[in-house]
Amino acid sequence: MTQSAFRAQLLTFNGDPAQSSHAAVFDEDGLLIVEDGHVVAAGAYASGAPRLAPGTPVHELRDKLIVPGFIDTHIHYPQTDMIASPAPGLLPWLDTYTFPTERGFEDPAYARDTARFFVDELLACGTTTALVYCTVHKDSADALFSESASRNLRMVAGKVLMDRHCPEFLRDTAQSGYDDSAELIGRWHNKGRQMYALTPRFAPTSTDAQMRACGELARQYPDVFIQSHVAENTDEVKWVAELFPGHRSYLDVYDHYGLLRRRAVYGHCIYLDDTDRKRMAQTGAVAAHCPTSNLFLGSGLFDFAKADETGMPLALATDVGGGTSFSMLQTMNEAHKVARLTGYHLSATRMFWLATAGAAQALDLADRVGTLKPRTEADFVVLDPQATPLLARRTSRSNSLDELLFAFALLGDDRAVYETYAAGQRVHRRDAAREHATRKTKVAA
Ligand code: GUN
Ligand code: ZN
User: Fold this and answer.
1) Where does the Amidohydrolase-related domain start and stop, copy by copy (predicted)?
2) Which of 72, 192, 273, 275 is deepest in the core (most CB within 10 A)?
3) pLDDT band at residue 434 under the 50/70/90 scheme
4) pTM for the whole structure
5) In what order do the strands lie in the sheet with 380-383?
6) Domains and CATH numbers, the chain
């Protein structure tokens, strides 16, 4: 098999930086060796170089930083074309923009076109794994999975389940949602690098019958993911209490239907109490914190201190199109500010962990992605400290790893992503993408 190697600064993790000062592993002059889509070794150049097979090409990237590919734990691909649509809160935003936009996915050609653009955008931002909501239409999931499979990406996605409290044109039924989900699991789950997520949009848009059917699927397929929203907005929380009387909390509704477990990922988790958070910790369900969305829609502030205290598993997410950026760097930027507003210090090293190895661990994918550990899949990002004049000035003055990572998180976005690799293959090159865009603009003019 052919090896390839990358000489660069390397960052990986062997634990949570909040728990150990040795959790981040940084090599100033590092070597990453890749073979057959997997990592063979990552560490100091001096110790790795003698292991290289004769003739192995070494990519010289000594002025760049390689980190594991970013993991976005909550994003809606059908909302790509409505990003940056403002509304006075979640529920009016869903009615005014989201549902009409998602109707467009009745057309499989539109779904395919959007999926292609969406995946390009993820890769341009260095995101190699995402938990993706499709629409209620089965074809929308096929379009996303086909696009991901064609680039050999590790993606998790699912068709939305929604049989009430939305326009008629977007409804499935408990039975059709069950059948379509089972069919999609058969077609895509664990096919290559694709994985399926049961996707009840949120409790208000599913009847008791649909929630039960979803719980039944969860029992039948114990290793599929589950994704939904919980406790994002105060009006939503009130509505759920009216729709599901007798439950201790909003989270308890999902618990009742058997939807809290490992690989269950809940977007937002703002208005939880400690009993809820401890229940998340006990079941292994994961909170996907979506700071750009929470600020844009005015939803509220995620409580990092309470998450730490209760051991609630946590990861970061964009929540595009409620979120305002595809970039996990920009997501870290806003996460840091949300934390500050609650009096909590979120270090840059911890933010990089939450967007890579921490997310992989929370998602039960740590043996495959999220680090540069040997035998894991070679998904990684090459970051450019000189991407912009300001970033160059700031990074040249950084005195620690955390300062360097802060500069990337606070000042970086897709411009800072020089290259993205999935399963050892380059799937994005910033400068080629820029040249392509410039050529297209010239031809159009
Ligand atoms: N709650 C239910 N659906 C959605 C959605 O599409 N985006 C967000 N942010 N919250 C939701
Ligand atoms: Zn969402």
Assistant:
1) 66-427
2) 72
3) confident
4) 0.98
5) 38-44, 24-35, 3-13, 58-68, 380-383, 417-422, 425-429
6) 3-68+371-438 (2.30.40.10), 74-346 (3.20.20.140)
